[in-house]
Structures are given as C-alpha cells and as structure tokens.
C-alpha cells in the first residue's frame, strides 16, 4: 500500500507510569482534515505515532465517512383521514413517525421541514461525521418543481430550527418521535419515510443529495377502514362418537366495548390430513342477542352426508367452522375461523415417551405414561388403570391404578421374574370429573423386552423420582449387578455435559451395592448419575 501524507496534526504530550496501563482519547476534528479528504471511494488512514526516548510505535487507523445507525418506524402500517388519532391522544388524521439514531457522539441539532406533498423532513446534525435527514413523501409525486420546493425548505427551516435543538445534547443514543398531521384532503396512495445521513450533507442538497447510508420503510395512506368490531368464535376441542350435538358460540363486540347488533352466518366443513376443506352446510343468518349467538348442530348431519359420514371413517379429521358477522348499522362484516376441533373416540391420548424399551429381569420395571388432551395439553387428575402380561400370561400389579399429576404423568411398578422375556401393558383412563367423557375410553399399549447382552450380564440403577438436594446433602442410590463377579465398575456424576465426579465401586462379589455421594456446588443446577 502506498500512502500519501496530506497533513500533520500537532503533537499531544502524555504522561504514563510503569506497570500502569492508561487510556488516552485523541480527538480528530474533521474541520482540520484536508479539503475533500472524505470524498471519493479511496481508502483513508490516520497514522498514529507514539514515541518516547525508549521506543517508537506507529499504527494505521482507517477513517470512514459513515458512522452510526438509524432505525425508523411508524406506529401503524396504514393510515386514514377518518382516524380519531393515535392512542386517543392526538387529533384527527395524525400519524407518528419515530427515528432511533445511534452515533459515535451526541447529536446536537434536529430540524423539521414541512412542504406540500412532502410532509416532513427531519435532519440530525453532528459536530463530527454524522449528518442525517428524515424524509416523508408520497411515492411518485412530482407536483412541485425542484426550485420552488428548495426555496420552501429554506424558509420553513428558519421557522422551525429551534424546535429540537437542546433535546439531543449529551446523548449518544437518541430516540425521536415526530407527529405529522395529515391535511383534510391528503393525497392517497403509498408513502415512504426515508432517513439519509452521512458526512458533508449540505442544506442546499438536503433532498436531492445523499452521501452516507439509507434506511427506508413504507406505509399506506388511504380510505381503508380498519375493523370496527371483533368476533370471537368458540367450537369444541373434541367431537366424540357419542356426542349428539356440536355447540358453537359467537361473541361480537365493537372496539369501544359495546355489543354488536347484527347477524351471524355459519359455514361448516371437515378437513383431513390435506389442506383442502370440504364445506357441506350453511347455517343462518341468525340474529345476535347482546352480541352473542349459540348454535347447536346435530352430528347426524355429518353422519348422513354422503361425502363425510361418521366414525370410524371420520376419526382424526378436523371440524372447520367459519362465522361471518354483519353489522346492522354499517354493513361491515368480520369473519372468524376455527379449525381446532377434532373427531375422536376419546378426549385423551396416551403415550409412553419416557418409558424404557427393555427391562432387567428380576428387578422392578417402571411403566411411565403421559395423558394428554387432543390439543396436547397435559390432562391432570385423570384416574388410570393398567393391565399387564408377561409372555402371554397375566402379570400381577401391586397398585394397578394411578392419578395423573399436573404434567399428565402416571407410573406403575411391575415385577418381572428372571424367566420373563416380554411384558405387554395396556393403560386406560378409568375415571374423570367430566360427565361428557364417561364411557369414551382411551387405551395406550406398550411392550418391553428382556435386556440382552453378552453372557446376559447387566448393571442397573434403582429408578426413582427426581431428588431435590442442597449443597452438602448426602445422596444414596442402589445399584444392581448381574453377575456379581463383574469388576472395575465406575460411577460418574454428569452436570451440563461435564463429568464433575468419578468414582469406583468397591471390589467384591456383591449383587447389590449402595452408591453414597455428597452433593457439591459443581452439581448445580442439575446432575445425572
């Protein structure tokens, strides 16, 4: 790299002490830069030289004409002259534009410019390398020629220059909100808000010239009317084979809280695994009462339809309900859709996600099942029962019932013998507090196989629930060894993927050994043995 030296800055004397690192700020005022130093695309450098009687050190520091970041946003994506204001605090037809500026030094001056069809222009001036402008304009609008627009900017700049002068002094991070009031008859269409900033961005070229970076957002201004009321549709989460009716509920309210006066029409459909919906019935229009309507649909309508039918063919399909509410006063309408309802023989489903696929012969095997509603929520307080068989013969379970906890989990203890090879279980729910669900059984099946290894040897840890320990508490665990002649058995505590403790079991012919551990700080927050 060939460097051309343009100017030398005056020296600055610094005082440092041995073994005491110090940080010094050297300010480079852009006013002292040579003319046109920051223009063009060539790389610029400042050569920093530090010297004393004992050493000489030089480094090259690149200089950029771009610094800082600017982010802009509007409070809404769409505006209308008929609005009542923003957040209820502004006048009719107003919009709020925000700019967030990050620079190396504080911004000292903010100027606002308003012109015909170019509603606002915000400029951020920095004593160093930051200069910016905020431009709001309608896309593709050329109703004012450049010369008249330029003179209008100059005149209004002088009137509004002092609005935000003191607001940004002393802040390297600045957040600005500017409120623009739309005229009574604004130009409709797509508008844009643009931030332009960079070095040497002169006032005379504030709109037409850019030297720096650009951030742009788009929003619309038009006669689009935002929703004046909302519709809430509620359909059953599960439709059982024994249900005679499906109950649908609609609630419609204006944005200011009053109930909607109008009509509601329902469309009913069914969808399977694919995206297509088969709509087969229209109900209504029905009149809302106090903004609410309850509609009962006989399941016989599904069963009698030639393209839909009933169980078992409809098992697993989803009910699709579309409710359209029409306001009596304005004729405006809103649509709500619900597709969460599912046709099922049971409101629950049973899984064995955390159950081991093998058992150690002669030891206790724990069957853990998860009870969930059709939408995936854990079903707590559900009484379940288990039936087990070993190699085709009934296997007695000491406690064959359990109630699901807050996570929807149940567990059962089985005692296979040394001769058993396969265990089959069937877990079903037995009792629930919901009368509608009585008689609609859910059954989950699971099979465990005998653990196999060379010489049928194994090592097993007694299974138990999660232990809550404090630092220094003693922790015991029972280990089973088959055959007892196995030697060189190690046990480890693993926390966050790292082994935090490693020990060896005592030598000897022991079928059962107790592992004793004292919890340590390194076990936090959770550990596995």
Automatic annotation (TrEMBL):
Q: Known Gene3D superfamilies for this protein? A: 2.60.40.1930, 2.60.40.1940, Immunoglobulins
Q: Which residues form the Macroglobulin domain?
A: 224-302
Coiled coil spans: none
Q: Which InterPro entries match?
A: A2M/Complement_sys, Ig-like_fold, MG3
- The name of this protein is Complement C3
Instruction: Recite the lineage of the species.
Output: Eukaryota, Metazoa, Ecdysozoa, Arthropoda, Chelicerata
């Amino acid at each position: 790299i060939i460097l051309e030296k343009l100017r030398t800055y005056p020296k600055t004397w610094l005082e440092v002490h041995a073994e005491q690192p110090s940080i010094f700020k050297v300010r480079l005022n852009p006013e002292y830069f040579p003319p046109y130093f920051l223009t063009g695309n060539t790389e610029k450098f400042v050569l920093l030289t530090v010297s004393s009687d004992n050493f000489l050190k030089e480094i090259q520091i690149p200089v950029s004409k771009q610094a800082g970041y600017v982010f802009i946003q509007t409070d809404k994506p769409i505006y209308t002259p008929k609005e009542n204001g923003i957040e209820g605090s502004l006048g009719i037809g107003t919009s709020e534009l925000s700019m967030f500026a990050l620079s190396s030094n504080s911004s000292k001056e903010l100027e606002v410019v308003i012109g015909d069809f170019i509603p606002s222009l915000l400029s951020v001036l920095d004593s160093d390398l930051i200069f910016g402008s905020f431009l709001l304009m309608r896309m593709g609008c050329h109703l004012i020629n450049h010369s008249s627009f330029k003179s209008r900017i100059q005149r209004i700049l002088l009137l509004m220059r002092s609005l935000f002068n003191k607001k940004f002094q002393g802040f390297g991070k600045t957040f600005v909100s500017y409120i623009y009031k739309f005229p009574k008859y604004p130009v409709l269409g797509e508008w844009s808000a643009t931030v332009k900033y960079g070095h040497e961005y002169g006032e005379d070229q504030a709109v037409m010239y850019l030297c720096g970076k650009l951030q742009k957002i788009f929003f619309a201004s038009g006669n689009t009317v935002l929703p004046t009321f909302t519709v809430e549709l509620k359909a059953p989460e599960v439709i059982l084979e024994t249900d005679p009716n499906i109950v649908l509920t609609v609630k419609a309210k204006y944005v200011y809280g009053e109930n909607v006066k109008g009509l509601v029409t329902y469309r009913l459909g069914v969808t399977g695994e694919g995206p297509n919906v088969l709509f087969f019935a229209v109900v209504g229009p029905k009149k809302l009462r106090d903004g609410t309507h309850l509609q009962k649909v006989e399941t016989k309508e599904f069963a009698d339809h030639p393209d839909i039918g009933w169980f078992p063919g409809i098992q697993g399909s989803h009910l699709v309900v579309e409710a359209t509410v029409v306001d009596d006063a304005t004729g405006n309408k809103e649509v709500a859709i619900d597709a969460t309802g599912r046709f099922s023989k049971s409101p629950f489903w049973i899984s064995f996600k955390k159950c081991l696929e093998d058992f150690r012969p002669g030891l206790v095997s724990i069957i853990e099942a998860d009870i969930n509603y059709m939408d995936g929520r854990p079903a707590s307080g559900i009484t379940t029962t288990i039936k087990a068989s070993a190699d085709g013969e009934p296997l007695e379970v000491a406690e064959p019932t359990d109630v699901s906890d807050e996570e929807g989990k149940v567990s059962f203890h089985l005692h296979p013998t040394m001769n058993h090879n396969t265990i089959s279980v069937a877990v079903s729910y037995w009792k629930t507090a919901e009368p509608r669900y009585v008689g609609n059984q859910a059954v989950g099946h699971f099979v465990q196989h005998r653990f196999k290894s060379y010489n049928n040897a194994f090592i097993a840890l007694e299974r138990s629930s999660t232990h809550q320990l404090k630092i220094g508490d003693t922790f015991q665990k029972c280990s089973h060894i088959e055959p007892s002649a196995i030697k060189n058995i190690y046990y480890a505590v693993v926390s966050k993927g790292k082994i935090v403790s490693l020990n060896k079991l005592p030598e000897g012919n022991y079928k059962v050994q107790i592992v004793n551990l004292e919890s340590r700080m390194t076990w936090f927050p959770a550990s596995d043995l």
